[in-house]
Design goal:
Helix 1 (about 15-25) packs across helix 3 and helix 2 packs antiparallel against helix 3 (about 90-124). The protein is about 50% helix and about 0% strand. It contains 3 helices and no strands. It has one domain (about 15-124). By secondary structure, the protein is an all-alpha fold. The protein binds zinc ion (ZN). Zinc ion binds near residues 29, 32, 34, 50 and 51.
């Protein structure tokens, strides 16, 4: 007898994307919102201390989001410099070589938290 295999509907995502992203932005575990993501400034914990969600093993899946946000930062700054040019070249280069890397560096943990939240949301 031929039996028709059952096709199951995909499970609904229990964790809302907005909640996960906000938790990631706050550098908390996107799944439970309790455990800290980082043990230092930018080093991920291996697992969440509260719910045991794998964190470090997912770090490699975040590179695309990190590149896109880095490009967006640089693009926004370059467009800003077109519409609001610096008074002279030295001020422009100083802004470019201090403001852009500085803002990228300062936002790195939060961007990584958001990337991790999206990755966890996609994989649930
Ligand atoms: Zn957790």
């Amino acid at each position: 007898m031929n039996q028709i295999p059952k096709i199951e509907a995909p499970k609904p995502k229990t964790l809302p994307l907005k909640t996960a992203v906000i938790r990631g932005m706050k550098k908390r575990c996107p799944k439970c919102g309790e455990g800290h993501l980082f043990e230092g400034w930018n080093k991920l914990h291996k697992k969440c201390s509260h719910c045991g969600c794998e964190l470090l093993s997912r770090e490699g899946d975040c590179w695309a989001f990190m590149y896109v946000t880095m490009g967006a930062f640089i693009g926004i700054f370059l467009i800003w410099m077109i519409f609001f040019p610096a008074p002279n070249l030295y001020v422009g280069f100083t802004l470019l070589f201090i403001l852009v890397p500085g803002s990228l560096l300062l936002t790195l943990p939060r961007r990584k938290g958001i990337a991790l939240a999206i990755e966890i949301w996609l994989s649930q």
